[in-house]
Amino acid sequence: MTNAIIVGDGPGGLSCALFLAKNGIETTIFGQDNTAMHYALLYNYLGIPKILGSDFQKIARQQVLDFGAKLADALVTEVAKSDDGFRVTTEDGTTHTAKYVVLAEGKGVKLNQSLGLTKEGRSVEVDRNGRTAVPGLYAVGRSTKMNRSQAIISAGEGASTALDILSTEAGRDVLDYDSPPKE
User: 118-119 and 123-124: which strand pairing?
Assistant: First the structure.
């Protein structure tokens, strides 16, 4: 089975995880729920008149779990390219492998820097689908737009990245539309 590891559990990482898990990609999100969302009050998230960032996080985390993604409360310290994807190491020395890695680590940008992906020492250069210069490695959220970060933008980038991964796996464009039940 194809698998993906997402480093970071803010709106970008959780959105990506939702789309991947919902469509059958084994998905693990590494994060410690230590996102800036806990300091936010959202008025500009389309479809939600107002929500506390902590409430948003609680709902989003449960949503990805309900679709089968795994949340791992662990700090990722290294991401390295391997022959068949990536090797991800956590703070306790445990190693995980994945075909795809999505960096959604927010303002810290530590893994991006260690992989040589930062431009001008801050942001990560990606295409419109979140692809970095390393095949199979994506970046979304604040690390790609350091001074233009919004929850809704990060969530959209996560969704776009997931659709790119799903399309790559299918060998064709994949859309993810849900329809109401027929009466």
Answer: antiparallel
Task: Give the number of other Cβ atoms within 10 Å of residue 94's Cβ.
Answer: 10
State CA 135 to chain mean position distance.
Answer: 16
Neighbouring-strand partners of residue 86: 81, 98
The CB-side HSE value for 105 (13 A sphere, CA atoms) comes to 23
How many CA atoms within 13 Å lie on the side-chain side of 182? 0
What is the model's pLDDT at position 27?
A: 98
Place of tokens 């994060």: 31
Q: Residue 6: pLDDT above 90?
A: yes
8 Å CB contact between 170 and 26: no
Amino acid letter, residue 80 = A
In total, the chain counts a number of residues equal to 183
* Distance separating alpha carbons of residues 107 and 37, to the nearest angstrom: 12
Give the integer Cα–Cα distance in Å for 160 and 62.
21
Contact between residue 64 and residue 29 where contact means Cβ atoms under 8 Å apart? yes
Q: Which residue's structure tokens are 């391997």? A: 82
For residue 46, the model assigns a pLDDT of 87
